[in-house]
Structure formats: structure tokens, C-alpha cells
Amino acid sequence: MTLAADLLLTNAEVHTLDDSDETHEAVAVRDGRIVRVGPEYEVRFLEGVGTEVVDLDGRVLLPGFIDAHTHLTATGRYLVHADLSKADSPDDALDRLRARADETNSTGDETGNATEEAGAWVLGFGYDESMWDESRYLTREDLDSVSDSRPVVAFREDMHVASLNGVALDRLVDEMPAEDVHREDGDPTGVVVEEAVDPVYEAIEPDAEQAEKLVRAAQQYANERGVTGIHDMVRKSRAPEVYRTLDMAGDLSIRVRINYWADHLDALVETGERTNYGSEFVRTGAIKSYTDGSFGGRTAKLSEPYADDEDETGQWVVDPDELGDIVSRADEAGFQVTAHAIGDEAIEAVLDAYEDCESPGESRHRVEHVELASDEAIERFGELGVVASVQPNFLKWAGEDGLYDSRLGDRRTETNQYPALLDAGAPLAFGSDCMPLDPLLGIHHAVNAPDESQQVGVTAALRAYTLGAAYAGFDEERLGTIEVGKRADFVALDRSPWDHEESISDIGVALTVVDGDVVYDGRKK
Ligand SMILES: [Zn+2]
């Protein structure tokens, strides 16, 4: 006698995305695992009295998306605090901050006393003055009009610039390096940059309760976008504690691999943590390091100068010697290693460090971003088996007159060479860096990239966001395709990306399933 399934997903166009990439009509799930994939009538044999049946009405069913590079609490901040990324003027940004201040003021208890939250920080994230007609940073004067009794901070999109009101400045200005505090006639304007932003971060670092709020909001947002797993980058944050607490309570609706910053390496070694240790939902991932900066700040490390500054070739955030030391210590302790590298010189430095490891391919060492890799470096990814963990949404900068054009000139078409990486046999994983967290947007950019050398087909793009990301997290045996025996993580789409190549970013997510549970149902009723 066959056991009945817990869940049937029927009347679907099921794409397995495995090597044969077959299409089927239906899937059956029991105990969080896929138990049958095939024609409707065969899958229906597993229907019992208690089986939940979801008719997908002909929709495309795919393995759930795995985002290989996230900062989940950063996404949570946009959701919980004022989201300034949607503001189209300084006034609009201030209105959003005022709304946030009101929202938290009204949480006073019935005696009318302000709660702790009501006296606390008013925060906004993601403003981008370069998109405004009135193109200027927010100032102390602006933010004093939001509140003159509570500290108010608005962060610029890149998090390298923050605007503070008078109360916030009074609290923190003594801890800030003077050269990073903007002044006019000796008085702080409210704008602080670079290292002066650090004391602000520390002051607003969420406690466990606040961090849980951020994670809960962000995991819901991720599920709504078809995300069933993430590789989260974590440094001195409460996020790992929250992930494990929610996991114990059965409240996590997303699988999390925690990539810990190299600062934590000694502590992890001492406490016996190793890559892949953990539960079905929360596992320890890689040790993460930096090498260079970014193109925006002209700090990505280039072999040839920037197109818009011929004296500049970028900077090391972590130089090759220090990187080599981190890589060898982490590798010898049995950890997967990953390093941020954007410019060609930085990418080469990481590959050099990995080449000295025992077996970089087996350890699945990875490079994050890989935006400007030389042809030679691309070949080395394939030869060494090093994972290229890339963000196809960054292709938004690759067009004519885009950021890559101004910083790199002709080299803009040499960025994000996904087809060459695949041809070289490099493991390719897609992620978003939460800019924003949205796999279909990234897939859209990869399929519709400005240059042929950056474009991949729909199937290849979907694979990089499913099986490719699973591989980067040692998860290809349990996740990443729709096959019998794998965990039941799925996303159903309202339209077929193969039939709507030019508008993939507009396709709606209809249903998200994690471990056999429906965690999001966006079907029009
Ligand atoms: Zn990142």
C-alpha cells in the first residue's frame, strides 16, 4: 500500500531544471520531501483523505529560488523603518520620516506615557538624491523638522552617507572623526560620511527583539518573491541568534546559510562550528572576507586606471597578504571561504590565494561579485572549480551612460561575463546582495543584458538562481531541482518566463512552498 501525500501541486507546467530539464504536470509531497513528479493521473494516485490539493491552473512550477548573497536584516530595515528609496524629493523623504515618527509615537500606553520605542530613534533607509530634481543631501535642518526631541537619521542608499538631526548629532558627534563630519562655517550640516557613519550604526544596532522583527518582515518579503533559501552575510549582528531561535520554534520560512565575517573565525573554530553544520533550516556556511571596494566609490581594485580618474586604480580593503592569511587559516580549519572581489586585480588576488589551498574546488571556495574578471581569470574559475557568486541585478549599471560606462569606459561590456564563466565550467550562483532582494529582477537582467557577452538564456538564468546557488551552499543533493527525494521547495509563477523573456521582472509570484508548507499564496482569488 502506498502512503498518501500531504500535498499535491496539480495542473502545472513543472520544470525540473535538472540536466534533462523535463516538464511534467504535477508533483506530490510527503513529510516535506518530493515523492512523485509526473503526469496528473500518476500523481493523483497519492491523493488521500488528508491530502491538500493545490490546482495551479496551468502555471509554471520551478524549484524555489535560492539567493546566494543577502543581508536579510538590511531588507528588514527598509520594511520596518521609513523606506526612503521610493522618495522622489527631499520633502517626500521628510514626509516618510514624519509618518514613521508618528507611527512609533502612537505606541504610548493608555496612560498616555510614551513607550521606550516612542522616545527612540526615527530611522529611514535608502535615499538617493541623485534621482531627485532637487539633488542634495538631507541636512540637520531638514531632520529637525521631523523631530527636535528624538534622534532622527536618514541613510543614503550606499550606507556611506548618513544625515542626522540635532539630537542625533549631539549624542554622537564626539565619537566621529572630524574630517568625515561635513561643516558650514564651523557648524555640522548634519551630513556625515564614511567612518563617521560607524558610530551611528553602533548606536542603532538592533537588540534581539528588534532583530527578530527585521528578520520576520524580511523573510515574508523574500517568500513573496519566491525565495526559499538564502546565503546570508553576517558580521557582528544578532541575526544568527534570531535564525536559530526561529528555527527552534518552527517559525523560519526560509532556509538560511550563514556566511560569517572573518572577524568571527577564531570564535567559530573554538566553538567547534564548521561549514555545513546545522539543521535542515539553518547551517553554517563560509568565512567571508573583503578584498576591494566598489565601482561607485572608485575603490574597486583595477589593473588599469578608472575611465573618469586616470590617477585612480582603487584600494585594498583587505590586502593580498592579509587575505592569504585569512584564506589559509579558514581553509585549514575546514571552512569554505568566500571573498568580495569586484575589480580585475582583486579577483586575481583571491584566485591566487585559493590556488594555494589543498583543493579549492572540493572546498567550494567562492568569489562574491566578480564584476570585472579578465579572460584568464574566467578560465581559472573553471580550472580551480571556484564558485562565481554574482548579482545579475548589477547589470542595471552596464548600459550606455550607466555607472560602468563612466567608471570603466569601454570595459563596461567586459563586466559580468556569465556565458564565458559557464563555458569555462565555473560553478555559477546568482544572488541579489539585497539591492533589492528579487530573483525575477536579476533573471530579467541576465536574460536581457546590454551586451551579448553578458546574456544567458532563461533556463541558464533560472538554474543559476536555483541549482547553481544550491551548489554554492553544498545543497545540490537536497535542493535546487524538482526531483524525487529532494526537499519540497517550490515557486509557482503567474506567467512563463520562457514565453515572456522581455518582461520577466513583471511576472508575479503565485505560490511559494518551503519544506512542503505553503508559505506564500499570491493567487488572485
Ligand atoms: Zn553584500
TrEMBL record:
Keywords carried by this UniProt record: Hydrolase
Domain Amidohydrolase, first and last residues per copy: 52-520
Highest taxon of the lineage: Archaea
GO molecular function: hydrolase activity, acting on carbon-nitrogen (but not peptide) bonds
InterPro entries: Amidohydro_3, Metal-dep_hydrolase_composite, Metal_Hydrolase, YtcJ-like
Membrane-spanning parts: none
Matches recorded under PANTHER family: IMIDAZOLONEPROPIONASE (PTHR22642), PROTEIN LONG AFTER FAR-RED 3 (PTHR22642:SF2)
Designated name of the protein: Amidohydrolase 3
